[in-house]
Each structure stands twice: as structure tokens, then as C-alpha cells.
């Protein structure tokens, strides 16, 4: 029960429009806002921003 409260699983969707996603965990206490990370999108073959999807 406590495992899912602090570090939930979140989906990161590419802003390039390819539909590619990463799945990761985040600490809700340190990052209460939506997570934004710059990662590699293999479908677009470039590094783009990935935003948290709820």
C-alpha cells in the first residue's frame, strides 16, 4: 500500500507526436508537478521532451 503512494508509476509521452512512451517512477514528494524529461525518441531519431501523462 505505501509503495504506490510515494513513488507512483508514470508514463512519459513524446512531444514529437510519434506516440512513443517511456515508463518510469517518480517521487511525489520531490516532484509534485508533472515530470518533463529530455530523452531519445527512436521513432523520430532525435532527443525530444517527454511529458508526464496522467
TrEMBL record:
The keyword Ribonucleoprotein applies. SUPFAM superfamilies: Zn-binding ribosomal proteins. It comes from the Bacteria. This is Large ribosomal subunit protein bL33. The lineage of its organism: Bacteria, Bacillati, Actinomycetota, Actinomycetes, Pseudonocardiales. Transmembrane segments: none annotated. Coiled coil: none annotated. One of its GO terms (molecular function) is structural constituent of ribosome. The keyword Protein transport does not apply. Belongs to the bacterial ribosomal protein bL33 family. The gene is rpmG. GO terms for biological process: translation. Keywords: Ribonucleoprotein, Ribosomal protein. GO terms for cellular component: cytosolic large ribosomal subunit. Signal peptide: none annotated. PROSITE patterns: RIBOSOMAL_L33.
